[in-house]
Specification:
A: alpha/beta, Aconitase, domain 3, globular, B: Aconitase, domain 4, 7-stranded mixed beta sheet, amino-acid biosynthesis (chain B)
Amino acid sequence: MAGKTLYDKLWDSHLVQQRDDGSALIYIDLQLLHEVTSPQAFEGLRLAGRKPWRTSASLATPDHNVPTTKHERISGVDGIEDPVSKIQVTTLDENCNEFGITEFNMKDIRQGIVHVVGPEQGATLPGMTVVCGDSHTSTHGAFGALAHGIGTSEVEHVLATQCLVQKKSRNMLVRVDGELSPWVSAKDVVLAIIGAIGTAGGTGYAIEFGGTGIQSLSMEGRMTVCNMAIEAGARVGLIAVDDTTIEYVKNRPYAPKGEHWDMAVAAWQDLVSDKDAQFDEVVVIKSEDIKPQVTWGTSPEMVIAIDEAIPRPEDQIDPVKKEGYARAWKYMGLEGKTTLADVTLDRVFIGSCTNSRIEDLRIAAEVVKGRKVASSLKQAIVVPGSGLVKAQAEKEGLHEIFEAAGLEWREPGCSMCLAMNADKLGNGEHCASTSNRNFEGRQGFGGRTHLVSPAMAAAAAIAGHFVDVSEFVKH
Amino acid sequence: MRPFTKHTGLAAPLDLANVDTDMIIPKQFLKSIKRTGFGKNLFDELRYEDEGQPDQSCERRPLRHDFVLNQPRYAGASVLLARQNFGCGSSREHAPWALDDYGIRSIIAPSFADIFYNNCFKNGLLPIVLDAEEVDQLFAEVDAKEGAQIDVDLENQTVTSPSGAKFEFVVDQFRKHCLLNGLDDIGLTLQQEESIRRYEEKRMNDAPWLFLSREQ
């Protein structure tokens, strides 16, 4: 019999009941909750007179709606100026109180983006199943955990039963071989992967990311890669557990301690795909081929290396692609432009569950240090992923570097990634963004998003347009 | 949940690949704490010229007349014809809620994104995957004749085109059962309480660190 993949192992260890029709009941170890996709789930519980199955398996924090300016944040939830946002955040506070769920509210230094907070607290652990009403839950797969986004009905289902009805996905291995070039980051790796397999390339699969190019990444980098698995269509992204994983988890507040720690570490050694495991699909990418990436269109697969020409609709053979490209060219206002260096930027956003961890901020600070944001830019903001990331960055003096360069240093939250708070793009504005989606209107009505790494966003903020950061830092 | 058995309705062709959930229902409408009322903002940016706001009346907003649902011949459509990878992006269940609230009962496309596909079944909506050629034929037939209706039969797993061509589709048997009977799957899962408890006991023994209290 062939060996098991990491995904097979995680699936098997959480199987409560296999049904004849192919569906299965899977046990969920951790559910993360935020204010946008949970209110209707709690309401459903109330209407049916149900209680959460196990409150200690949930952790909540508001992130999508929270304002990021100091003056709005100083008085916690009362300071939210948008009344609709305020109701949603207040509702999360009330629901967590009523149902006895641990919440890091707006006044708690541990508050932040759910996908930054879970790992930071050691709430996310290797070998777990993790769900959240947010598609970027795939992030937690970086820990060798089976993690994916769910809808609100399923949020309610997990609260009530601690289980999910699931059908097993197929296994895909994306192997990144070899050492990454200097200034090429995890973000460039995952954008290049999405460019290669497309936004539906991973649909129906759990993607395991492997190879030396992945193994050499820090946990922050691995989270960035798994975070965007969903942008390749895969609900699940996974990376095998190794010493880097275990080192990161050790001594985190919710990580096991003492005897439990030793037991856990012993069990986690098995969280790798067996050597003879069979994948349904294998994709191999060479690290040396990956250059700093920038998206040019309105789908994450519309991505090119910084030195490439923007692909033209008329050069596409596939009619669906031709039409999609034409629509994207029009929306993005690319007429008359040949490369992305020709695009004048209006705003820069460094943040989101993809790139708001300490490593991301350190590299962005390194690029802008001693330089000034281009005068043509309307705004450049840096939004740390959590209160603790913010505190760490301030301890290192990163905020001073950003502010001296002319970038705004904000309070933690999802912010301009999806513009549910006041941070958004104006109609027609171009933004270099370290977030995960460049869909039409995502960052604001008519807004034009270009996805990049933190280093590329920082360099773009200084230059006022896209540049190859590996060249830029030489000057 | 409202059951879905058979449905015959006016079909509207949305001829666009990779329609994401941000397009289906833009973020500013996700601030609601209800499950209803999203229909007027379905495809908001494709449907209206201006930027929509939550709680705003849409009656006087300028329409984008080229958008399919704004064309008089598709008023009252309840079957949506779509292209590949429909519903990609965010996990927001507000997307199927908006489609449902608008009056869509079934969506037919060559492929769907996983989370969206799954969310539909929880809300009495039937997403149907057909071969690209079959979807092409439905697009052509619907375009050719005003008022063209499509018939969807979940029990027999068939779609009948306006001209009478029958296409079979595949659906997971558990989902079909729940949808046909309008079953609340939380209730069904809770019938397995003993299996869940048994699993927990074993797991608590093998991996006790997963069951520690989070209050610290």
